Amino acid sequence: MDRMVIEHFLRMGYYEAAEKLASKTDIRELTNLDIFQTSRDVEEDLAEHKTTKCILWCTDNKSKLRKINSNIEFQLRVQEFIELIRSNQRPEAVKYSRKYLTAFKEQMSEISEVMALLAYPVNTTIEKYKSLFNESRWNDLVLSFRNENYRLFQLSNQSLLSVAVQAGLSALKTPQCYSANSKNMNCPVCQDDFNKIAANLPYSHCAQSRLICRITGLPLNEHNLPMMLPNGQIFGQLAIPKISKENGVVVCPITNTKFTHPKIEKVFVM
Asked: How far is CA 154 from the centre of its chain?
């Protein structure tokens, strides 16, 4: 569990918290802290619109990146070319393209599109080229690097903690978890935060249904017989004292209907 939490912290960018937990539990050697620390430095460099550290990372892992057919270096070279044009260094941009972009012959169509930027101003209104000048491309580079880093070290796109939580919620999720009148206080999926996380997850496969009391959260069985109020609402036998008031008054928690000395009948489920 500690390893999963540490990895999740790293993926979410909480590096200091991950370091502290790893030190406290003495499991640093069992974690990917070093991999994510390198990733952190590169991502921070890209966030500052710099490519130096990411280019060095590509150089250090060149053979591995080639094996997984990564194009992260090409994306970086294209961005450097765009930045030269943005700073009105077009002759330098041409020299740069001859030195670096010609090595990526398999991306020739993309190179042709990028080279066309030499003929357009930075504030062009033509959408095709305007998007290439968009500063948001740096955010895309951060995401691309992060995904390539995961692929390089065979890490999944989701943290193990996220996968485990989703698997657990899916195993417990039923249609009643999304019904306003039948949520179970003891069901994790019925809690507001988990309920949102589980919204797009599949329902659990139940070969045999179980009836659960809406008040106590306990199964309805021979030890907790299902009992029906006059208005047709059914609760476990152990819940009746909880909804009973003084003078024999019973209040239905679903409809707020009050009954005085009501006839509460047993229900038999076939």
From this structure: 18
